[in-house]
Specification:
Helices cover 47% and strands 9% of the residues. The chain is α/β, with parallel strands linked by helices and 347 residues long. It has a six-stranded parallel β-sheet with strand order 3-2-1-4-5-6, sandwiched between helices. Strand 5, helix 11 and strand 6 form a beta-alpha-beta unit.
Length: 347
């Protein structure tokens, strides 16, 4: 099984009318730059000249990685569950930014190596198992586990869409998940693995070289699969696999899909390899400082809204970029046209 998702290509019948409305606003042609691109895309997704943003959500998927035991992260594995608790207690950057912009935040335990209390309202219990296997020695996940990730994440997004949400962003938390993202990128983009590897949680030069040595050796031994699903199972994480399923389901639900940094973009890479049409539904929010993300965005031929030298994950790039997306919708709905304002057009 590759995917059971059915992503409808966006109809283009309204494109001319949408562009005419944008061009008719009281401004020189193209003067709002990227905001005009975002407005056009949102109107096309929603098939309307009057777009809206309803009940915005950010989902943060968390999971642990067996590859962490190879010393590829600056932090110990227990930081994953500790940061999840920080999210649930409202103390992380993503909490601050979601609160600032009235975005509903939910945290998903996709496979954290910890037993969370069952009565935490903000936590969605979606654990496949307590962390993936160490892909230096065996596949990180089985195909059955990968498919289960898709199915369970799909169910979450469907429920959120049914609640009235039409714009959703995705973040992640998982010590060593930049290693998984780098391996997925190298395998699916056919790039040397060392070009895909960055400092992650802030590795020193010596530790970065160790990470490069470990992952290069793994890739030399295990190689690549030409199946996106098999590649994901070989090198991915439970949170990354659930991100893939969530992105695919959100596009199937015709939601505006907001993509965060390096890890989320690596999940998007897998999803796009399965269903290329999802690109029409996705807005890339920021360029991470992580080396691999810059190359990956170039490979995907996408231009993110922001470059603030962030590399935190958690969905923070989504939350920080969200006001720009709001601005695109507001100018489309509220800005006067030359005709309504009685302003002369360009001669």
């Amino acid at each position: 099984m590759e995917t059971n998702f059915s992503i409808t290509p966006i109809a283009t019948q309204l494109s001319t009318a949408i562009q005419r409305k944008i061009n008719g606003k009281t401004k020189p042609l193209g003067a709002l730059g990227r905001l005009e691109e975002v407005a056009l895309q949102i109107c096309q997704i929603q098939q309307t000249l009057s777009p809206s943003l309803q009940r915005p959500h950010v989902l943060v998927f968390a999971g642990d990685h067996g590859i962490a035991h190879e010393g590829v992260s600056a932090y110990p594995q227990e930081v994953t569950w500790q940061m999840v608790m920080n999210f649930l207690n409202g103390g992380a950057a993503i909490n601050v930014f979601c609160k600032q912009h009235n975005i509903e935040l939910r945290v998903v335990d996709a496979g954290v190596n910890y037993d969370f209390p069952l009565d935490i309202k903000q936590l969605i219990h979606n654990k496949i198992q307590k962390g993936t296997a160490n892909f230096a020695r065996e596949s990180a996940m089985s195909l059955q586990q990968t498919e289960k990730c898709f199915e369970s994440a799909s169910s979450i997004v469907k429920r959120i869409a049914e609640s009235g949400c039409n714009v959703i962003g995705f973040g992640e938390m998982g010590i060593a998940n930049t290693s998984s993202a780098a391996m997925l990128m190298s395998a699916l983009c056919n790039l040397p693995v060392e070009k895909c590897i960055g400092r992650g949680t802030g590795l020193s030069d010596k530790a970065l070289q160790h990470k490069i040595d470990v992952l290069s050796k793994v890739f030399a031994n295990r190689g690549r699969s030409y199946s996106p699903m098999n590649t994901l199972a070989m090198y991915g994480g439970f949170e990354i696999a659930q991100l893939v399923g969530a992105i695919l389901q959100a596009a199937e639900c015709r939601m505006i899909v907001l993509i965060d940094g390096f890890i989320a973009t690596s999940a998007y890479l897998v999803a796009q390899a399965m269903q290329p049409t999802i690109k029409e539904y996705c807005i890339f929010c920021h360029q991470s400082q992580e080396q691999g993300h810059q190359l990956l965005l170039h490979y995907l031929k996408v231009n993110p809204l922001l470059n603030l030298e962030m590399r935190l994950g958690e969905g923070t790039g989504v939350a920080v970029a969200y006001p720009l997306i709001q601005s695109a919708v507001h100018f489309m709905n509220e800005m006067a046209s030359f005709e309504s304002a009685g302003v002369s057009t360009k001669v």
